[in-house]
Amino acid sequence: MEQMAIENYIETMTTATPQNHFRIERYIPVGRENAVSRNRLSEITRLNDRTVRREIEQARSRWIIIINLQDGAGYYQTDDVDEIQKQYKLNESRTMSVLVQQKFLRRRLSEAGRTT
Q1: Contacts of 49 (CB under 8 A, 6+ apart)
Q2: 33 and 59, same structural domain?
Q3: I need a labelling partner for 11 at 20 to 30 A (CA). Which of 30, 52, 93, 115 fits?
Q4: Region label for 93, one of left (φ > 0), alpha (ψ between -120 and 50) or beta (otherwise)
């Protein structure tokens, strides 16, 4: 009976309606020790990987702090400032890498007479 209740809850939570908006953060635990993989999030929410990624990004755009340090631990929520700083630095590094690539792409397009 308990399993059925859990499945009904998951079904309710993963079906977005005007009264009940899906929130991926409900499935992402607090604390690094409880981190969950994106694959596991797909399993428990019954959403495909692409949708899970999109839901995580939407949650982050709502100022939900979701950490993934790309170290295999998975996704988790935290208020730990040290963990938040690690995520910030990781994001900053990625951003700079993309900006450097954009610079060279823009240069090549300019050489080809194309505007960006």
Answers
A1: 38, 39, 42
A2: yes
A3: 30
A4: alpha
Domain that holds residue 103: 80-116
Q: Are residues 8 and 22 in the same domain?
A: yes
Give yes or no: residues 66 and 100 share one domain.
no
Q: Are residues 51 and 27 in the same domain?
A: yes
Q: Which two tokens stand for residue 108?
A: 């090549």
What pLDDT digit, counting tens, does each position of 33-91 carry? 999 999 999 999 999 999 999 999 999 999 999 999 999 899 999 999 999 999 999 99
Its pTM stands at: 0.72
Residues 17 and 53 in one domain: yes
10 plus 56 within the same structural domain: yes
Residue spans of alpha helices (H) in 32-114: 38-45, 49-61, 81-111
